[in-house]
């Protein structure tokens, strides 16, 4: 009887085959990674857009209550006044903070910005509730800027360890120069910048929907300002719930504020009059300080910025948009109808 003797020999990968497999996997990863990154950025951009829509809803709820949009900024003679960001806190689930301010006689928003007040007693307990407060709706998820930052512009604030939120959205007070050629809609302030009152979130006065004669779907009210980690190209100051001081009372008009003494500071924190295209590589003296009025619209979204129109809708504007078109969008009553922006 013959016994068959069989052996099964199993071959392994050769080194060349292994390297080919590794190379194929590497190529697949290289192809998939950009798609994954794009998907993540798309989700972040959608979240940013939702933030703007929430701000838009809050602004319209404010309008329903007060028959106008809030002041872009109000000013005291000595200290900072209320900004639009603070005014809509009750509609962003922060009513307790807002009510605390009202109960304290508006001391919270008055002293929260500080900057040049060196009196440690001025920063009362009510003010400190803004320290470490983060309103999620004011944070763009694509931004690499820290959500919180420590005060570095006031000895008294530094001494008490003030840490506040860096906001990623800015109110639109209008455009400079006026796209319709008017000369009475802007005015020079110190440091070489220009304030404007041809937009919606203006200083010392309020605007209603009836004042937006260009149409609410044609007029911006808020924009991102979440890009560029250089603070001198952004508009940020402690808390950013204030807008600095301008030499008039909180009930003063914009004309009174314009006529304020030349040595009284006029800060544009939380607001901008658009003078630059989005995401500029550089700016002039009108935007080389964080409190200037012409700080640009910026973001870390590739190719542009998210903006909020005054009808409550959010749009993505390409950074290649003509500056004139952008300024027309920032103006409430220049008489221009813009198609396909």
UniProtKB/TrEMBL annotation:
InterPro entries: DUF1559 (IPR011453), N_methyl_site (IPR012902), Pilin-like (IPR045584), Pre_pil_HX9DG_C (IPR027558). Gene3D superfamilies: Glycoprotein, Type 4 Pilin. The chain crosses the membrane at residues 12-36. It comes from the Bacteria. PANTHER family: GENERAL SECRETION PATHWAY PROTEIN G (PTHR30093), TYPE II SECRETION SYSTEM PROTEIN H (PTHR30093:SF2). NCBIfam families: IV_pilin_GFxxxE (TIGR02532), pre_pil_HX9DG (TIGR04294). PROSITE patterns: PROKAR_NTER_METHYL. Residues 37-322 form the DUF1559 domain. This is Prepilin-type cleavage/methylation domain-containing protein. Pfam families: N_methyl, SBP_bac_10. Keywords: Membrane, Transmembrane, Transmembrane helix.
